[in-house]
Amino acid sequence: MTTGAVTAAASRHGVLGVVADYVRLTKPRIISLLLLTTLLAMIVADRGWPDGWLVLWTMVGGAMAAGGANAINQVVDRDIDARMARTAARPVVAGRISAPHALGFGLLLGAASVLVLGLGADWLAAGLALLGFALYVLLYTLWLKRSTTQNIVIGGAAGAVPPLVGWAAVTGDLQLGAILMFAVIFYWTPPHFWALSLLLRRDYAQAGVPMLPVVRGTDATARQVLLWTVVLVGVSLLPSAAGVVGAFYLVAALVLGAVFVALAVRLARRPDEHRARAVFSWSMLYLALLFVAMAVDAAIIR
Amino acid sequence: MLAVVGWYVLLAAVLLIAAPVALIARGEWAAAGSARAAALERLWVLLPIAFLVVLVVLVARVA
To answer: Of the candidates A270, A161, A281, which has an alpha carbon nearest to the alpha carbon of residue A226?
Structure first.
């Protein structure tokens, strides 16, 4: 679609529609979980509620970095998105925002995020946000997504950066607690995304994306979900072993992890969409509750 | 007392991690095949496993 046609489509859509499309370009629902992990890492690092302005600038900067990376992802992946029912209505694919405009918007957000985080929080936090931006765009989107079934395992590092940003914003440093929070999200990513990809495997096959269920099939993917879930539960115990958090978190990690493993076992026994959806839904709640437990333990109980 | 608990928790974590990682490594190593891309595929499998080893060592130093 030409720029003129895009402008005509946008004017028909109205200003509010254009704004809504630019917001959609940032994938706000994904950003909300990333920001939650950032905020809770700040609380763990501070052992309490950090300065309000610091929280504000870190959240704004973090949202801009993630939003910018997501916008560029939608430019690069527009050929894939056009072939998948779930993503066919995205602003760039549908021609409501031109690819150059979306790319410029993404780069602008990424650059602005570095300034906001550097000036408002800490330059290490800014550098880490830029690292997450680069990992998502260059490593995951441009390289791994189209080339290997391990795409979301390695690419998961990008989504695990937000707690590092939050921790660095508070302390100006990275300690073991930050690395363990990064690790929890890193090892949470495979079971989370492979459960989702079981639900979307026909879409991914149609788009030619080598997601695990497309290449190896449903049974093998369900087995991998179970194996990585057990690894995740083991990793989730490490913050307690290191003394970063205490007994409250340990009990929460065991209970939440037991539910996750039970759902993954059920999926591995008979993989179907209903069971994959249960694992996917629980995985999001699991991560949020695990990080809340960590923050409560570090800030209130200890 | 806390240190002793830390070691037990670390042991539990290692036991939970070791068995599935061994299965993942064995399966993915075989699945990588012998094509030209196999070396890269194996690197992608090894990276998260190597990171687990680093994590356990780091925690063991403070537990």
So the answer is: A270
CA gap A169, A83 in Å, rounded: 40
H/E stretch holding B33: none
Q: Which amino acid is at A114?
A: V
- A244 φ, ψ (degrees, to nearest 5): -65, -40
**Look-up of token digits 């075989």:** B30
**Are residues A243 and B23, on separate chains, in Cβ contact within 8 Å?**
no
**pLDDT mean over B7-16:** 92
Lowest mean per-residue pLDDT among A18-32, A155-169, B31-45: B31-45
Which residues 13-42 on chain B approach chain A with CB closer than 8 angstroms? 13-17, 19-21, 23-24, 28, 31, 37, 40-41
Q: Which amino acid is at B50?
A: A
Chain B contact present for A265, CB below 8 A = no
Q: Could you tell me the two tokens for A271? A: 């993989």
* Overall residue count recorded for chain A in this entry: 302
